[in-house]
Design goal:
The chain has five helices and no strands. By secondary structure, the protein is an all-alpha fold. It has a single domain, classed as nmb1532 protein domain like (Four Helix Bundle (Hemerythrin (Met), subunit A)). It holds the Pfam family Hemerythrin.
Length: about 170
């Protein structure tokens, strides 16, 4: 991850293993596509925060960037909420019939993401309210973004390896 773009390339499963599997055969692939989009958005948000933390722009521009980050994180939190609900209420309950305690385990992980979003919103609020220690506050924001990015990406990778592959292989088999 030297250049920060390696996290964008997180791919599951290999293209060869999905050759010939259509969305109608394995609708779980929709969730995999969503995961890829979520990874990309988290990466873009992190890059935007890092760029602003390293810039020496005027406070009005910084305020605009903070407002933009807040808007995008609010949307991302809402999207994650509905995505997690769909997984919890449909996918994991269906899988729980075959693999015990999957629904409970993943639901707990989904709940933990809210606290990470709260940390980001706290940092953004401080940046909007206080003009002291802007550099330190942006560094804290970047740290919080990296934490949520790592947590969500690891969680999604685990879902893809343990859950989605089950539905693709088992359910798509003729």
């Amino acid at each position: 991850m030297a250049n920060g773009d390696d996290d964008d390339a997180a791919i599951f499963p290999s293209a060869e293993s999905l050759a010939g599997v259509s969305l109608s055969q394995a609708p779980i692939l929709f969730f995999v596509c969503f995961h890829k989009a979520l990874r990309a958005e988290l990466s873009q948000l992190r890059r935007l925060a890092v760029a602003e933390s390293e810039s020496e722009s005027e406070s009005s521009h910084r305020c605009d960037v903070v407002v933009e980050l807040r808007r995008r994180f609010e949307f991302l939190k809402l999207v994650c909420k509905y995505h997690c609900a769909a997984e919890d209420e449909i996918i994991f309950l269906a899988l729980d019939v075959h693999v015990k305690n999957v629904a409970c385990t993943y639901s707990l992980e989904h709940e933990s993401v809210d606290g990470l979003f709260d940390s980001i919103f706290h940092c953004l609020d401080l940046l909007l309210e206080d003009n002291n220690n802007i550099s330190n506050q942006f560094q804290e924001l970047v740290c919080c973004i990296c934490t949520i990015q790592t947590s969500i990406c690891q969680h999604m990778l685990k879902e893809e390896e343990q859950v989605a592959i089950y539905f693709i292989i088992v359910k798509a088999a003729p």
